[in-house]
Amino acid sequence: MATGGFTTCLWFDGQAEEAANYYVSIFKGGKLGRIGRYTEAGPGPAGSVLAVEFEINGQRFVGLNGGPQFTFSEAISFQIGCADQAEVDYYWTELSENGGQEGPCGWLKDRFGVSWQVVPTLLLELVSDPDPVKAVRTTEAMYKMGKLDIAALQKAYDGA
Question: Stretch 31-39: mean pLDDT, rounded?
């Protein structure tokens, strides 16, 4: 059985290197790896980027310039657990700017169409509280939000 973990492959239409540079600029400690280029064998133009390796938050990725056949959907998303509102605000702003799309309940798409969930780590604790009244209040408050607001979620949880 493979023991080296997983590498997530993201399929782009000619934007793999741009996307990799974008992601490593947002996540502290992000780093680029090898860049593979098409050869005369194709199918892309010789010398253009075929694939680029990168790592963010300890997760390995390969950006593949595979063409326009496939696009991203919300069926796959990356969840960012945020310790506080400053982190929520940072990732929400960075990932939704320059063509990204804000969505409901902490979800957004970045400018490449990749879906992200920008979520306070406290949220799961609040919505899974054994007191169903608190959990329901918190969940209902979350449903009304785009970017998640920790203070407002806590307020709903507390019944204030």
Answer: 97
Closest CA to 76 of 5, 20, 8: 8
Alpha-carbon span 104 to 94, nearest angstrom: 17
Q: How far is CA 65 from CA 15, 73, 74, in A?
A: 7, 17, 20
> What does DSSP say about strands 107-109 and 115-120: parallel, antiparallel, or unpaired?
antiparallel
pTM over 0.85: yes
Task: For residue 141, count other CB atoms closer than 10 A to its CB.
Answer: 19
Task: Return the axis-axis angle of helices 132-143 and 150-158, rounded to nearest 10°.
Answer: 150
What mean pLDDT do residues 25-50 have? 95
What average pLDDT is seen over the chain? 96
Q: Is 87 exposed, middle or buried (0-12, 13-18, 19+ CB in 10 A)?
A: middle
